[in-house]
Amino acid sequence: MKEAVILAGGFGTRLRSVVGDLPKPMAPIKGKPFLSVLLRQLSAAGIERVILSLGYQAHVISDYFGSTFDGLSISYVIEDAPLGTGGAVKRCLASATSDPLLVLNGDTYLEFDMDALTVEWDKHREPIIVARKVDDVGRFGSLDVRDDKVIGFCEKGLSGPGVINAGAYVFPRALIGDFPSQDSFALEADYLMLAVKRRNFRCTVTNGKFIDIGIPEDYRRAQLELGGE
After folding, report:
1. Up-side HSE of residue 84: CA atoms within 13 Å toward CB?
2. How far is residue 133's CA from residue 205's CA, in Å, rounded to a whole number?
3. What are the tens digits of pLDDT across the range 26-42?
4. Is the peptide bond before 100 cis (omega within 30 degrees of 0)?
């Protein structure tokens, strides 16, 4: 895989008390934007081009990163109106130049094995949902996985260990034809929850570091565990 999409259009409402009006992906980690940590990770993994899906204060992000960063070619898909995570992915896939694409959330740091993902894709040529083992699925909701396939999503509120959707995917460009027809929709609630019941979505589980900076507690954790060059 040579191309990735990062969904970086969120408002970051829950982080306002900590980072003010900054777009969430620009929340500083040891003096550098959180998004720069993700981009350096992708560059080290062999990604060559990144499509950034932007919304809230898009210019703050595009002005900072420009067209290249750490050896990556960067392009932008900017929402005129909120598209939801699904609508954003749909538009980014349409502007992709290679196949398949790695899709990531711009507010989550996830350690994963790019080589393993590539092998899984080459073997099956089916969409992949990257999962993460956690001690308590309550905050996230869990995945129902059978024979390395995701067959269902369990709602938040259940407790105990399990695997969760880590917000990382390998999607072929052709998946556009399977998406809802509307421009704006949620990737998980409006598409994936239904799609896994009618087509194969492979599951790859990682035990790597997983930090969702969407809440102040985990943002503080990111300050301690990430960053540095």
Report:
1. 15
2. 7
3. 989 988 999 999 999 99
4. yes
